[in-house]
Amino acid sequence: MSGTGRAARVRLERRLETARHGARLLDRKQRILMDQIERLHLHMDQTRAEWEDLAGEAAVWLRRSAALDGSARIAAAAPLADATVFFRWGNAMGVTYPEDAQCALPALLAQSGSSALSYAASVHRSALVAGARHASIQRAELLLAAELLATRTRQRAVESRWIPKLEDELANIRRQLDAQELEESLRLRWAADRKSGDG
C-alpha cells in the first residue's frame, strides 16, 4: 500500500481505472484475434483441400510418368534451380504473420518424355504453390493463436489479481479515511461541547 491519505486514494482510484480500462482493451483484442483466427480457419480449410487435391493428382501423374518414362527421364526433367517462396506480411493487434505466399518457380526444362511427364511436372508446380499458401495460413493461425492465449492470460491476471488487489487497497484507504473523519468529527464535537460548557 502506498499511503493512507486522500492523495493515496486518488492515486489508487486512477490505477484502478487504468486496470479496468486495460482489461477492456484486452477483451477487445481477444475478440479481434478470435475473428481473425476464424477467418483463417475458413481459408485454411480451402487451401488444405486445394493442396491435398493437387498433391494427390501430382502423385498419380508421377506414377504414370514413372511407368512410361522411367526414373532417369524424371530426374532429367527436374529444374536446375530451387523454387523461392516470398511472403506478404500482415499485422493484427501487434502480431506480424504471413498473409499470403507467392512462389518464384524455376523455368521448366525441355523434356523428351511422354505427355504424362510434362503434366506431372506442371501439376507438381501447382501443388508446390498451393502447399506454400497453405503453410503460410497455418503459420498465421499458429502465431495468432499464441497471441490470443497470451492475451487471455494477461486479461485473467488483470481481472483476477490486479483489479481485486487495487480494490482491496482502495477499500482499506476509504475505511481509514472514514475512521479519520469520524475521529475528527468527534474531536470537534467534544471541543464544541467543552467550549459551550465553559461559557
Automatic annotation (TrEMBL):
Entry's Gene Ontology molecular function annotations: proton-transporting ATPase activity, rotational mechanism
Keyword annotations from UniProtKB, A to Z: Ion transport, Transport
Keyword Ion transport: yes
InterPro entries hit by this protein: V_ATPase_D (IPR002699)
Pfam families linked to this entry: ATP-synt_D
Family to which this protein belongs: Belongs to the V-ATPase D subunit family.
Descriptive protein name: V-type ATPase, D subunit
Organism expressing this protein natively: Arthrobacter psychrochitiniphilus
